């Protein structure tokens, strides 16, 4: 158990990516459960959205248009204006560049265009001497240096911390004219974690050994007191960062976790509304204003831990909002220390309880430790904005509990085996008696199964054999006549062969079902099979006093069934209906009618209804009618209806009986269409 404790401590200190993924998912879940409620009212977003593009024109706009937008915002004296747009190249729509690119223009027009100020100059003049912060991007472009004014805005207090911050070799900068005019510049592209989510905001970046502030850091500095950002270190690792007079706890690389809110930013306005004058004259006064592109297809959208897809502009706003409301989350060396203390406490407590107490006390200790870990982690998040990872601690607790419980279980099992050794001999004698009874029971079950199978085969073969017998007698009577009707004899002999084939098919079907457990099905015309069965019954049955009426739907679709089994079902049901009419309790033959109707029911199933005008069924007969070996006939086997129902249910249909409103009974069955 101690080896597991030290293994998890080593795993936490080495911190491979799978462990980070587990930790990040836990922290994301915390923000999903309890997103940030506290919000500042100091941030306003000016979005270059779809409406702005449709009214003003496609992106990129001429920088003269951005100059007008900037002038409108700055005229209301905001605290600062952060432009989340990078200008690495001159504006191609500037008048002087248009004149230079179009050599075929008349000289007078070219001179007039060249004399006009460039769009870049207009934008530079708009932001000059104003609290404007421009963005830069690390990891792009070919520049390896940064503007001198940017590095001057950072002050290190303590030891050199550059080695603690990830280093970048390239930076994408703005054109010199705009860099000279801007009050400050910061890195605006926030790096994603390997799983594609943005969770943390760096306060500073390391570009070829030079510390550069983040976009948010510079906005905060310009908005509040315009003093250099202070990096407070401890043993060459960042401990705190002071930006704009606000102090933030960070990890050793100078990053903090954004505490996301799931509420939309209410102070949002379209750039088109600003340019058209549809905002109040004090809308931006004393506010931190962020300008950026949010139009779908142009702006980059990134999923947040709370499940929202946020534009770059919204991400900057969420980060600044967390800074201004002092709700940034931190996962510092203190968090790591608490997590490691968890491991030691868990190991000591569970090892001591496992060696000193029973399973109940071990389970109680396990539950107390789990809840303590969860409460400490949630309390740090809720009240101190400190992220403490409970996952490895809970895994350790569960692992040690399972090991201790398993060890106790094996010890108990060993004792039980010792106690059971004496009982084994007594049980052997009992098992011998039980085995003997089982053998007798299996023999009885085997005999019963053979009897049921024999009864089933006899019942199914009874019908074709009876038909063969009747047809053979008819053939003999024809032959006994002096003037033998050869055509009639051929017809009767053909029917004998048909019934013989049918008997063979029944046996084949029973054998296939016994061997494979499956029945072959195909698309069948139910109306045709009904007519064949009615003709058979009229030929061999006593139906002189019974009128059979067919009401078959001519548009009936084909049914998916086994032909032999469908013949069996129809013959059983029609013969039962005939016998219900022709044989009363007194044994006298009665008259009546049978109606056979086919249709499609509301469920799309093919439904066949066979109604008779017999005496009907009692309540007791309705309950036991479909049970095997139940019969109301002296010579009956009681298997017909039970076999019919099992056949239909195996085909996906059903069989049931109802009272006939005209007297008698109605048997309904359904089949699926092909």
TrEMBL record:
InterPro entries: CHASE2 (IPR007890), HATPase_C_sf (IPR036890), HATPase_dom (IPR003594), His_kinase_dom (IPR005467), HisK_dim/P_dom (IPR003661), HisK_dim/P_sf (IPR036097), Sig_transdc_His_kin-like_C (IPR004358). Keywords: ATP-binding, Kinase, Membrane, Nucleotide-binding, Phosphoprotein, Transferase, Transmembrane, Transmembrane helix, Two-component regulatory system. Pfam families: CHASE2 (PF05226), HATPase_c (PF02518), HisKA (PF00512). Its EC number is 2.7.13.3. It catalyses: ATP + protein L-histidine = ADP + protein N-phospho-L-histidine. SUPFAM superfamilies: ATPase domain of HSP90 chaperone/DNA topoisomerase II/histidine kinase, Homodimeric domain of signal transducing histidine kinase. The keyword Transport does not apply. The chain crosses the membrane at residues 334-353, 360-380, 392-411. Residues 456-674 form the Histidine kinase domain. This is histidine kinase.
